[in-house]
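I am hoping you can look over what I have pasted underneath with an eye to the fold:
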Amino acid sequence: MPRAVDGTKRKDRRKKILEQAKGFYGRRSTNNRVAKDAVAKAGQYAYRGRKERKRDFRKLWIARISAAVQAEGLNYSQFMHGLKLANIELNRKALSNMAIEDKATFVALCDQVKKVLA
């Protein structure tokens, strides 16, 4: 019985890697040996990126809240402390959206924080 060299499992394995490497530059997208390393590295970047995205969004929300609160004469840390004292439990994402989309409610929230801090 002859030895199977180009079996379907082998082709499928290579095909899967080359499909994942679609859009890469040069031999990284066409050559299996190079593509395998490129796909592995891309996977590491993707894994790390999913963790970083959470940090980046939190930074963005904090920056937006800080900018909106400074216009009301407070700073970010005072504002967050005041929210805690006033037992107002809103996450940073909601506060950030409120500062952008619903300015009147955000100003009312700032006034409430100022009363609690005074």
